[in-house]
Each structure stands twice: as C-alpha cells, then as structure tokens.
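Open question from group meeting: does this chain pack into something compact, or does most of it stay loose? Before anyone orders reagents, we agreed to write out a predicted structure and look at it together. Recording both the input and the output here so the notebook holds the full record.
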Amino acid sequence: MGMYTEVLVKAEVNLQDTAKVNIDALQYLFGESSKPEVLPRHKFFTLPRWGAIGHGCSFYHVPFPTSRADIKYGTLHIFSRSDFKSYDGEAEAFFDWLLTFAKSSTGKCIGWIWYEEWDTPKLVLELETNINTLG
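Structure tokens returned:
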C-alpha cells in the first residue's frame, strides 16, 4: 500500500526574472496547461512521481487536490495542496527546484511537507541563500 506525503505550496514567482521553462512546468503542475515538451534541467524532473505534485490525492489527508496558478501584475501566484507517495524524494526535490527562483522574503514559509505518520509538517522556508530547511 505505502505511505503518503502531503505537499502544500504557497509561493510567488516573478515572471520577468524566471526562465520560461520553469514557468511552463509550474503552470502544468498547478494550473490548467498541458505537460510541456521541454522540462527544466533539475533532479526533480527525473523522479518517477514528479507530476503528482499539484494533482495527487489520497484518503489519508484531504481526499482531493487543490491547485491554482494565477498571473497578476507580472507575478505567478501559486497555491496547492496535494499528496502522493514521495518514495524517491519528489517532495524535497520539488522545493529544492522551486527555491532557486521563488520570490519571497527571507524566513517566509512557502510550504510544507507532511508525511502521513508525522505529528507535524516540516516547513519549507526561504533563506537568503535559497536553501530550504527541511531538516
């Protein structure tokens, strides 16, 4: 059967400062666009369940995914809650990729990873060096 991991994302991405390949991937994961022909060069996109972020769900968390990606004032605003089997570190790799270009303030929480058997989630924070604190 396997264990599920919930991923919550609340982030902003500046369109002018972000490569189109990254925007296209985000709009596929959290918007209503089709899978892009060209994917970003990051470990995340080599993992088997990378496409489950933004789309996957199980009975063990909230039994439906919620994802939205809207553009306003030159910024892509993302909100998503989904869960899936992150056996190969897809959740951590996703945030590793996102933090290379996400727009936020130092110390701001842009999401969490919550494994099915944990009592609390691990928060993902934006740091000055764009390294998350998944601990």
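Observations to bring back to the group:
The two ends are 26 Å apart (CA to CA).
Confidence is low (pLDDT under 50) at residues 128-135.
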